[in-house]
Design a protein that fits this description.
mainly alpha
């Protein structure tokens, strides 16, 4: 969870927790691998959303409107 989300939740009196793995690398490497896969999926979706928003903005700025 990003810090700005954590700070916003805390300001609204919600509890939030962050996990910090510790110990031998072998014990938490599977966790880190899962997190990397999750983040990759999130970034792919964010990239698609960004492209769709850019396309919508471009269409609104550069397409002429047909007036009846």
């Amino acid at each position: 969870m990003c810090d700005y989300i954590t700070f916003t939740l805390a300001a609204a009196n919600f509890n939030s927790y962050k996990l910090m793995p510790y110990g031998p690398l072998e014990s938490f490497l599977p966790y880190l691998a899962r997190r990397a896969q999750d983040n990759r999926a999130i970034f792919k979706k964010a990239e698609k959303d960004r492209l769709l928003m850019y396309k919508a903005l471009r269409d609104r700025l550069f397409k002429t409107q047909q007036w009846c």
